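Collaboration report, partner site 2.

Our partner group contributed sequences for two proteins of shared interest, and the home lab folded both. The records are reproduced in the order in which they were received, starting with the first partner submission.
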Amino acid sequence: PIEILAGEEEGRLVSAAAHSELPSLAGSVVVLDVGGGSIELTVGSRDRCSSSLSLPLGVLRLRHEHLPEDGVMRAPHVTGIRETVAAQAWNAARDIGRHAPSTLVLTGGTARALVKLARRLDAGRSPTTVSRRQLQSIIAHLCGRASAELSLLGRAHLSRGERAGVCLAMTLAP
């Protein structure tokens, strides 16, 4: 038989995996697992999961609601995604804020795409982390550009869903 995990349990398991894979994580950490239809948000430390939530804010859902078919993300699209995420994640953000997290760990395809793009935009460095300032720079770089144009510039290809994920990460970053 196949057992389907509840979103909250999936979040706890992803958080445990992140702490296991990243032994340098200390203090209160937010782990954000970005899926197609939902995100799992977990906050806690290596030894304790303080909160685990599942929200209907996956990248495919956000892409469908906010990005045009041509994939060109413009400022109004970024604003729309951020407003949707902020409205739906308001209570979660308050709960997370009570734990005073210092780090956001992003998992899944959006995380890989962000690191790939950060590496390309920051030639010569090989970051495995992306700062809030880098997220802002990535959003500015993506705005008004089609995927084909980014490819011609030698940039990492980001799907429409991954572009939505960048905005999602920026909105939820501590």
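Second partner submission, folded after the first:
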Amino acid sequence: LEDVRALSAMDDGSVLVASRGGLFRVDPEGRELAPVGPAGLDVRALAIGSGGRLWVGTAQDGLYQLTADGRVLAHYVHLPHKVDSSLPDNEIRALLLDRKGVLWIAGNSAGLASLHPATGDFRHYRHRPSDPYSVAANRLSSLLESREGLLLVGSWTNGFSIHAPATEDFLQIY
């Protein structure tokens, strides 16, 4: 395995391994390594949803939703002619499925997005230098949900932001 970027534990005790060479599952005893999903994906980020559904963020190929056994349910990519209703960036750095079931997507160059899996609707959040209540940057690196339900968004160069979904505002921390 080359360049392991994320690890996630499954309910059955197996572990998912996201790497430059693809997505793999290690059995609970740690004896078998089996590929999961489309071959050859450069996987950067993982999130596990209800029923073991997998969200897989890639380095260049957008976002996949897979069944627990790796069958593709959906593939989301950036569509230049549908900017507001598609993935904002095909290079995904981090994923987070929050307690309300919303998938948060941190991109490499186009900011933050949320995806409501039930409807397939995207919402985009971009850094605007003149707006102190926008996300800290468009090149993002990490996501975390606090105990209080706040979203923390790490950036490459501008610190991080704290987002309260109820207000839609971001507090920038440098």
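Feedback sent to the partner group on the second submission included the following. The chain has a mean pLDDT of 92. The chain is about 0% helix and 45% strand.
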